[in-house]
Amino acid sequence: MIRVLLADDQALVRTGFRMILENAPDMEVVGEAGDGAQAAVMARELRPDIVLMDVRMPEVDGVEATRRICTTAQDGSGTPVRILMLTTFDLDEYVYAALHAGASGFLLKDTLAPDLLSAIRVVARGDAVVAPSVTRRLLERYVGTGPQPATSATRPDALTEREREVLALIARGLSNSEIAGLLHLTEGTVKTHVSRILSKLGLRDRVQAVVYAYESGVVRPGAG
């Protein structure tokens, strides 16, 4: 079972998500939090697999809650809790900050139920949800607009030419199978390249790889 914690300041929204999740045979809602501070505490106590985290909440918002949860996870105590951000807006500076804070992706609140469940399963497997068009527009709008903590201290020249090529395609939102077709490689080979890229750059997942690619100049806003 995938154990999910709901974090949203609107009780009605939490109820809606609970109904969707409890109808899924492989998921259970282990708790509900009405603000970011409560979400961080409950994530530490309940150790859910996934937190569905609203971006905008009073007092402690979803970004700060994500930062607290992911910082706690770095102490190596058990399986990391993964954060799936929820936002009403498809261009939201808070979401960009949340990706930096350690979120594994984000969804719009009006996402259809099957897509929500699919995204939760993807993140629970340890992958990341990268909505290509939305994520790309988000990064193109906010990268370079202000001081941001570095995603990785490693320079992109640590990568081979092929790895840089794969990283650029990840940043464009392509899946492993799409990258394989474009570069005439097997999907297994692409997976190996992705793993090496993440390892060399000290990145957690594809979401961080996308952010890194824009911030390091491997891809540039508006290109391609």
TrEMBL record:
The modification 4-aspartylphosphate is found at residue 54. PROSITE patterns: HTH_LUXR_1, HTH_LUXR_2, RESPONSE_REGULATORY. SUPFAM superfamilies: C-terminal effector domain of the bipartite response regulators, CheY-like. Coiled coil: none annotated. Pfam families: GerE (PF00196), Response_reg (PF00072). This is Response regulator transcription factor. Residues 152-217 form the HTH luxR-type domain. Residues 3-124 form the Response regulatory domain. The lineage of its organism: Bacteria, Bacillati, Actinomycetota, Actinomycetes, Streptosporangiales. InterPro entries: CheY-like_superfamily, NreC/VraR/RcsB-like_REC, Sig_transdc_resp-reg_C-effctor, Sig_transdc_resp-reg_receiver, Tscrpt_reg_LuxR_C, WalR-like. PANTHER family: TRANSCRIPTIONAL REGULATORY PROTEIN NARL-RELATED (PTHR43214:SF24), TWO-COMPONENT RESPONSE REGULATOR (PTHR43214). Keywords: DNA-binding, Phosphoprotein, Transcription, Transcription regulation.
